[in-house]
Write a structure and sequence with these properties.
Distance between the termini: 43 Å
Structural class: alpha/beta
Radius of gyration: 20 Å
Largest sheet: 10 strands, mixed
Number of helices: 13
Number of strands: 12
Oligomer: single chain
Strand order of the largest sheet: 7-6-5-4-3-2-1-8-9-12
């Protein structure tokens, strides 16, 4: 691969983050995840270290590199090498784990590596989490969080900051109010609550909060506001999604104007929802069904990220977002709060 040209490098903007999908292998079987539901055509692969190294010139203009996609990042044999390389490039580095591989030795290595953010995935509390995320364990997640906090104290490290990625399903409404109390004392810096925004099977429509009616959505929004306030009283920062359609220009939480995603195959996409590594599959709206619709703008095995960013199709995609005329591949996405 040729090095980025002078002009592509000069005009490459400073991005807020770059999400790098280090692997699409996963050792869990979450009932709502495309990895489980598209299993017959799933493409499992690790991002090669050589491809990661080709990204290093671009990483000098990235604030946060997030090593995570449609897989369990710690399954990658070169995960810690990637953390070290990204940090040497001057980036903050984060990842999200299901906690199944966090032995005492791995936890020590994570804390010593200089990783900035370590997020844990939860879908409900107790038995609800275990029902939706087979292969993982609610108790194991909480124990791993405590063990990471203890290792930070032992090694006298401030990082990684512990985050929680909490998926809110409609059937898990009773858990929401109990969340701040359940997490108290675990030294969690931040909780990000999300809803099921990619519905990969028709029976999961009922779990997607944004597919509920207006009256139910109002109730959900009030419950989310209450949990933020309850968390604040306990010293816990909780971020929640807006559930209603925006009247102004649409805003994508994937930050597609100042961020990008590199897949485990080296492909550049605006978000992980538009490059799911399956040969076939469908996703479901309130009454419609759509085939998987990849949105890719280049391959960093052939061109630099800087050059891909400046290609005409990618520039046109971003320009449509800036004017509110959404690209076709984004128009029915629940991530932008369309109901």
């Amino acid at each position: 691969m040729a090095r980025p040209s002078f002009w592509s490098n000069l005009f490459f903007p400073r991005l807020d983050w770059l999400q790098i999908e280090v692997t699409t292998h996963c050792n869990a079987g979450c009932a709502y995840c495309p990895h489980t539901l598209y299993q017959s055509s799933w493409q499992s692969r690790h991002l090669s270290l050589a491809v990661f190294e080709r990204l290093l010139p671009a990483l000098q203009k990235i604030d946060l590199v997030y090593l995570q996609g449609w897989g369990e990042p710690l399954l990658h044999p070169d995960f810690f090498t990637m953390v070290a390389l990204a940090r040497q490039a001057g980036c903050r580095v984060g990842t999200t784990t299901n906690a199944t591989l966090l032995t005492e030795a791995v936890i020590e290595q994570l804390v010593a590596s200089g990783l900035d953010i370590l997020a844990f995935s939860l879908t409900g509390l107790g038995a609800n989490h275990d029902r939706w995320r087979p292969g993982t364990s609610y108790e194991q997640v909480l124990q791993a969080i405590s063990a990471v906090a203890a290792a930070k104290r032992r090694l006298r490290r401030q990082t990684p900051r512990i985050h929680l990625a909490y998926l809110l399903l409609r059937s898990g409404s009773a858990d929401l109010a109990r969340l701040p109390e359940a997490l108290q004392g675990l030294e969690i810096s931040q909780v990000v609550i999300s809803t099921l925004d990619f519905v990969a099977a028709p029976e999961l429509r009922q779990e997607a909060a944004k597919l509920a009616g207006a009256a139910e959505l109002q109730t959900w929004q009030q419950a989310l506001t209450a949990v933020v306030q309850a968390g604040s009283r306990r010293g816990l920062t909780i971020h929640v999604p807006p559930l209603f359609r925006r009247e102004e220009l649409p805003v994508c939480p994937e930050n597609i104007l100042r961020a990008a995603v590199i897949s485990a195959a080296g492909e550049v996409s605006p978000c992980v929802f538009r490059n799911i590594p399956a040969a076939q599959g469908q996703w479901f709206g309130p009454s419609s069904v759509w085939p998987l619709q990849p949105c890719r703008f280049g391959d960093v095995q052939e061109h630099s990220l800087q050059e891909v960013w400046h290609t005409a199709p990618y520039r046109s995609f971003r320009r449509l977002w800036q004017t509110g005329a959404l690209p076709t591949c984004c128009r029915d996405c629940l991530r932008i709060n369309q109901i």
